[in-house]
Design a protein that fits this description.
single chain, alpha/beta, 20 strands, globular
């Protein structure tokens, strides 16, 4: 039975939330498989914007079961605040389930995240300082607390005492910060948060496999994107988990043969937040134009995004890393006013042409983009409801990206609204 993955093909912020929301109408379950509340999805429904961080995008449909999988790191206070916000907008959140094997973000994770970034100075990674990386580090070090520990106060306190002994030494001896109280954490997590979170905790591996056995359709969504992947991204300027399609299996409990479709999300240009290489980055007037027209500021953080021309070199790499079956192109309308549009089709470094990103970071940092220049359409496409209504030059741009990436483009976003998309025939 079908399980489809939605994955970002760039550095995030491609519009995964809107695409997931679009696909979810034909699904029965939406599963979030990695990341934390360091990435947000913005969905506009009938003029009202919903900013989602942890809750799967499918929550806006009453027939969907939203699942937070084992690969996610969860700040329970943030989760409950998000659920309360959705409830206040008359969204039914009673269907949300959370994996007992998901790891908890703790106050010391957030403190260490802030301190580490500060001490790195000019070498800072540009994290959101929300404790995501330290939580994943503790998971790998096997000292993390999991969501299921909220169900057993004795185990929670025992694990907390062990890990805080080491964390407080680091905070005090290295960063000259005061110790964090185990008692205060236990009171907040066990007395305040656990009673509300406990009814949502479940064996989500069993839930997703039982759904497949019933013939239900599953959609798996991650946070961040391919080139923020811990293994395949522009390391060290990456996230702390695996957003690529392979991570959908480990983060949900599904097996590789359960995946039947992998939809890559690509913005019609490229953005990234924080530090790291960006071969097609634009400065000056053109960069500011794309930032303004695309409203390129973080959904959660408000940070200004860096912007650049579409990078087909990255897109080809994303296609093979994720085994993309199709691409959904977003924000084509942002380019409406441009006289000409550039697409990076290859890199050059020291006389060598690269059709895929060079593996060595020193080379990647010094590449020069090789561009093809296309004519802009200079007209408003936001009212288009059919691909054939697009200006000829807009259609030509979409077809050029298809040809450059080697992947069929199945959906094109022409505006921020839930229904503002067209499907190429």
């Amino acid at each position: 039975m079908p399980a489809t993955v939605v994955v970002g093909t760039q550095w995030g912020d491609e519009g995964k939330g809107k695409l997931t929301d679009l696909l979810a109408r034909d699904m029965d379950m939406v599963v979030r498989y990695q990341g934390g509340h360091n990435a947000g999805h913005r969905i506009v429904v009938e003029g009202e914007a919903f900013a989602l961080q942890l809750v799967p995008s499918g929550v806006l449909y009453p027939h969907i079961t939203p699942v937070i999988g084992n690969g996610v790191v969860v700040d329970p206070a943030v989760l409950l605040a998000e659920l309360d916000t959705l409830s206040a907008k008359n969204v039914d959140v009673s269907r949300v389930v959370v994996s007992g094997n998901a790891h908890l973000i703790m106050p010391y994770h957030q403190e260490l995240d802030r301190l580490t970034e500060r001490f790195l100075g000019k070498n800072a990674l540009g994290t959101t300082k929300r404790g995501i990386g330290p939580a994943y580090a503790d998971k790998s070090s096997r000292v993390g607390l999991r969501v299921q520990d909220l169900l057993d106060a004795k185990i929670f306190r025992e694990k907390l005492d062990v890990v805080l002994h080491e964390k407080n030494l680091v905070l005090n001896k290295i960063y000259n910060r005061p110790a964090i109280s185990a008692k205060d954490i236990a009171e907040k997590y066990l007395d305040e948060l656990a009673p509300r979170v406990s009814p949502m905790i479940a064996d989500t591996v069993a839930i997703v496999h039982e759904a497949l056995a019933r013939g239900e359709r599953l959609l798996l969504e991650g946070a961040q994107a391919t080139f923020l992947d811990l293994d395949h991204g522009t390391y060290p300027f990456v996230t702390s988990s695996n957003p690529v399609a392979g991570g959908a299996c480990t983060g949900s409990g599904l097996g590789p043969r359960d995946l039947t479709g992998i939809v890559g999300i690509a913005k019609a240009y490229v953005t990234r937040v924080g530090a790291g290489p960006f071969p097609t980055e634009l400065d000056g007037e053109m960069g500011e134009l794309l930032v303004d027209r695309g409203r390129e500021y973080g959904t959660n953080t408000g940070r200004r995004r860096r912007v650049g021309w579409f990078d087909a070199v990255m897109a080809r790499q994303a296609a093979r890393l994720n085994s993309l079956t199709e691409i959904a192109l977003t924000k084509l309308d942002v380019l409406d006013t441009l006289e000409e549009i550039k697409v990076c089709v290859a890199y050059e470094a020291d006389g060598v042409r690269y059709d895929f990103p060079p593996y060595h970071q020193s080379v990647l940092h010094d590449v020069t983009p090789i561009y093809e220049v296309l004519e802009g359409w200079q007209s408003d496409i936001t009212e288009c409801t059919d691909f054939h209504q697009l200006p000829a030059k807009a259609k030509a741009y979409v077809r050029f990206l298809e040809e450059s990436t080697g992947v069929t483009i199945s959906v094109v976003g022409v505006g921020p609204g839930r229904e503002q998309f067209v499907r190429p025939s």
